[in-house]
Amino acid sequence: MVLTTIDSAVNLATTSPSGPVHINCPFREPLDNSPSVWNYSSLEGLDFWISTAEPFTKYIKVHYPRVSSDAHDQLSEVIKVLQGAKQGLILIGALHSEDEMWAALLLAKHLEWPVVADVLSGLRLRKRLSPLPETESKVFFLDYLDHILLSDLVRCWAQADVILQIGSRMTSKRISQLLEGCYPMSYIMVDSHPFRHDPSHIVTHRVQSTITEFAGCMLKAHFPSLNSKWIGTLHLLNTMVEREISFQICADSSLREPYIAYAVSKAISRENALFIGNSMAIRDADMYGRSGVESGCCINTMLGLGLPCQGIMIAGNRGASGIDGLLSTAIGFAAGCQKRVICLLGDVSFLHDTNGLAILNERIHRKPLTIVVINNHGGAIFRLLPISNTVERQIVDQFFYTSHNVSVSNLCLAHGVKYLKVTTKPEFQGAISTSKAENSDIVIEVESWIEDNAIFHSGIRNSANETADNVLTALSKACPPDSVHHALSSFKIHKMEFFHFRVSLNEPPTSDTMITDLTTYYREGFIATIYLDDGSVGHGEIAPLDVHKENLVDVDGQLCFLMHALKGVEISYVLALMKGSFSTWIWNNLGLPPHSIFPSVRCGLEMAILNALAARRGSSLFKLLYPHSETSEGPSEASPSIRVCGLIDSNGTPAQMAHVAGLLVEDGFSAIKLKVARRSDPLEDAEVIKEVRKKVGRKIAIRADANRKWSYEEAVQFAHSVKNYNIQYLEEPVQHDADILRFCEETGIAVALDETLSSIQGNPIDYLSKFNHPGIAAVVIKPSVVGGFENASLIAQWAQWQGKIAVISSAFESSVGLAAFVQFSSYINSQDVDILRVKNKETNSSVAHGLGTYKWLKEDITSQTLNINRKPDTGIVEAYVADADELLKTLQINKSVILRSFNEMPVHTYQLNLDSAYLSCSVKVQEIGPAASNNVLIFLHGFLGTSDDWIDIMKVISGSARCISLDIPGHGRTKIRNHGTEEWQECSLSMEVITDFLHKLICHVTPHKVTLVGYSMGARIGLYMAVKFASKVEGAIVISGSPGLKDEASKKIRRKIDDSRTRSLIGNGLQLFLDNWYAGELWDSLRDHPRFKSIVTSRSQHDDISSLAKSLSGLSIGRQQSLWGDLMSCTIPILIIVGEKDTKFRRIAREMLLELGSSTKSEDNEMNDIHQMVEVPGSGHAVHLENPLAVIKEIRQFLAKIKL
Length: 1204
Description:
Strand content: 15-25%
Structural class: alpha/beta
CATH architecture of the domain at 641-890: Alpha-Beta Barrel
C-alpha cells in the first residue's frame, strides 16, 4: 500500500499540473471486525523493486501524435510485458461508449486472451450475432469467474502472470481477491483519466490513454498465443459453472432475485438500455446475468471485423453516492441515451429517491422507463455479507436491516405512475414483455424475502463451487501426472462398427415393444462398438422402443450414418463431465442437431464413447463419471453397489401375484414394482396391491405402474382403494399431463413420472418445471428413452434438487446395457449424496433402481451374464460396479444372437463419357450400393455444389438401393468436351439441355426407372424431369425446390439478376462470388452451422469457372419454363422437403402441395396420398446439410411407400 501510494503521489506531484499531494490513510475494511496484524510476509514479491531504482508502479501518459510510432515507443514496455505472458487475463471495467466497446472487443480478439467483463462494461450482457454460443470462440468471455473462484482448488490453480485491465473497477470482490492471490505478477491498468484506482495496491503499469487509442496501438503489435491448458481449463470451468448456475436458476419454480437479473438480461436488446442500482441489484446482474442473441443491421459490420457480439448500453451510479438519487439518475440516463431503459433497483434504493417518481411526470423528451423494484423489505445484502456470520442475529436485524412497510403501490398511485406487482416467473416475464410495448412508464414490483433469498444464493454458490471442484478433479485424474498429454487434449475415433441382435426372453415382456412368435418372445436391438486411435474399445447398446416412435429400420439408418460420420472425429475426456458436453460435441464435431438423433441411438452412442474413454483411461465407467470415487476398485465386496427393484407383470390373480412377490422378497429384493391397469376394473388391480402388501409386510417398498392406461376417474378409483397400503409411488396413473397434478392433489398418492419424460423436447428443465409439485415423488428415467446419459443425468439432478427420487430404469436391455446402467445408477446415487451435502441435508436411504428386467433374459449378447445377486451382509439384491465394469472390459459376444453385421459401403468414383444432342461431357459419377439393384436413386446437387454433397446420405440409403450422384455439367469435375468450339459458344446450359443430357445418362446407367433426389437447382431439375420424362421416373424428392416463376415480369427481373451474377463470377473470380453469394438472407441458418466454412470451401472445387457461369445463367429460374401448370396432371409420387426456417420455400412448398393434390383426386373426389410435404425443424434452405438425419428418415420412408 505504501509503495503504490508514494508512487502515485510522486507522479501527481511531478506531472502537469504539478503541486503538493495530500495522502490519506485508509480505514479498515467496512463492517469487517477482523483486525489484521502486519507481518514480514507483506514484503514477499518485492525483490524486483528492491533490486532496482524503478518505482513499483510505472505511470505512462500516452501522447498520440500523428506519427504513430511515437505512441508505440511509449508503450514498448507494456507491449513487451504482454508478449511475455503465458497465462494472461483481460479485465474490462465500466465502459461509456460503443466505440470503447468495439475497441475492447477488437483488442480481446487480437490478444486471444480470456476476458472478464464487468456488468457496467456493456459486454457482460452482450448480444451474440448468432444463436450459437460457440461462435464466441474468437473472443473468450470468462463470464462466471466470480463463482468459479468459490472453489479453493481453482484459487490455488488460477495463477495469472499478466493482468490487463481496461476501464474502471470491477464489481466482483472475488476477482479483486484473485488478483491479490496472483501477486507478484504484472498488472497493467488502462484508463483515460489520471486518477488512481488500485485498491489492492498491486498495479505495476498505469497507462493513461483512451481505450480506443490504446487498442489501436496494440493491434499493430504481434502477440504469441497463451498456454493452451490455461485457456482450455478456464473455458471448461466457465462452461460447466455457467450451465450449473443456469440449471439452478431455471429449475427453481419460485421467483427469486437471481432469476430477476437472469430474466432482465435476456429481455434486454441493443434497442434498449439498462440502468442498475447498487447493492444486490448490480451484484446479481454481474453474477447471474447472461448474454443473448441479437439480430440487426450492424451484424454484417461486426462479423466483417471478426467480432461475434456487440455490447449493450448499461449504466450505474456506483461510488460515494451509495443508494441516493438512483431513480433520478436513471431518468436522466434515459433522457440522455434516448433508448427505452429498464431500471433495476432494490426497495431501499427506490424509497431513498421517491421524489424521482415526480420527475417521471415532467415533460422530458425521452422514451418510457420500466422500473423493476425488488422488494425484500430492506437490507438483504447484509444477510449475504460476512457480518451476518460474525454478529448476533438480533443486532443485524436491528441495526443493519432497514425493514419497512411502505407500499410501493400507493407511492405509484400518488404520483400517477402505472404499477404492476408480480409473484411468479411467468408473471414477471409477461410484465417485462408487456412493458417494452407500453407507451408509458411503469413500475414492476417483485416481492422477495431476505432469508429465502440468502438460502437460494447460498445454494447457487455451493453448487457452483462443487461443479468447479469436480471439473478440476476430473481433469487431474483423466491423465497420469507424468503424461505428456493433459486432459483437454483430444484424440480420434478410429472407427465404429455395429451389429443387429435378437435375444429370446423367458416370459412375455411388460411392454408392447417386442416381437412375439407364438410362445417365444424376443428383444431386438443393436450393439455399437467404438474404436479409438490407441486401440481402446467401448460398447454401447441401442434398444429402440416402438412405443416411443422409434423403429429398427430408422435406427439402423442413423447408425449407418454415424458409422461413416464418426471416422476420424475428435473426442476428449471433457465428454465425461456431461452437462451439455455431449450435445455441444454432437453439434460442433458431427454437424448434427442433437435433437435429430433418436433417443436410443444417442444413448448407445454415449454409452460406447464413455466406455471407450474409461478403457483409454484404465478405469471404470463409474469412476470416469465420478472421479471423486476411491482410486482402487478392490474386490466386489468393497466396490460401490446399487439396489435393484424387482418387477412383476401382474396378469394373475391377487393370490398368484402375492405368491410371486413373496418369492422376490425371499430372493432379497427390497422393492417391488407391479404393473397395474392390466384389468378392466381398477379395483381388481387394487386387490392385487392389497394381497401383495399382506404377503410382503410393511418394510418392502411397493411401486405400481399404470403406464398411462387409466382415465382420470379410473386412476382416482384405484388410488382411493389403496390409500392405506403404503405405496411408495404410482407411475403414470393418468393419460394426460394436465391431469397429473390434479390427481396428486385429489388423492394424496405419490406419483412418479416415466412416459411423461419421453415427451421432453429441448431443454428438459423448461419442461419439468411444471412438475415441481411435492406430489411428484419420483422420476423413473430410462436413458434409452430420454436420450442418453447426459439427459438422464440432468433429469435426475433436477429431481434430486427438488427432493424427489431419481430411479434409473432399463428397457429390457441385454447385459451390455445393464452393466452400463449399473455404473450410471451408482453415479446418480453419488450425485444425490453431493446435492444433499450442498443443501446441508442428511443422505436418504438407498434407492432401488429399475433394473429388474434382467430376469426376463433367456439368452444374452454376452457369453457371461451380469452378476446381480443378494449381498451377503444385508441379504438385499444388489449389483456391483466392479462386476459391471469387469463384464464390459472382458466382453465376449455370443455370436448366435447376431442377425447381421454392418460394414462400410465403398464409394465407386469414375468419369463417364456421354454425348447428347447438345452436350459432350466426361461426367464425374459416384456410386454406392448394389449395382444389380433395380431400386436406383439419382442425386442432384444445387448450384455451386458437387456430387460429394450427397455421399453421407447415400451411404445410408445404399443398404437397400443403388445410389448415384454426379457433378452436373458446369460443376465440379465434370468436363464439357466440346468446350471452346463454336457450337459450344452458342450453346446454353439451359434446363432443356441439362435434363435431356441427364435423361440419356440415366438410360445409360440403368434400364430401370429411377427416383430423383434433388436440392435447390437440382430439385428444379428433378421436378422438370419428373414432369417431362415421367416414363423413366418412379418418384421425385424435391428439397428446397420450386416449379419456377409464374409470371413473365418476375422472370425478367430474375434473368437480369442472374446475368449480373454471371458477369460478377467471371469478372471477380469465384472466391469473391462465394463471399457475396453466402452473405444472402437465404443462408442465414446455414451460416450458423459449425461446418459452414468447410461447406463454403468445398464450393470452390470447380474445374471450369466459365462453364459454372454458363450454368448460372442458363439454369436461371428466370429462364426456366414454369411447371406450375404441369403439377395438376403429375401422377409421379413427389416428396417435398423444406426447412422450417426457410420462409420463402415453405410458402412455395405449400402451394406446390395444393397444386399436386388436385392431380390425385379419385373419381369420387377422394385424395390419393401419393404426394407429401415435410418441414424439417430447426433447418433453413440447405436442409440436407443442416439436418441430414431427418432428411434420411424421410427419404427412406418415401422409398418404402412408393415400393408398396
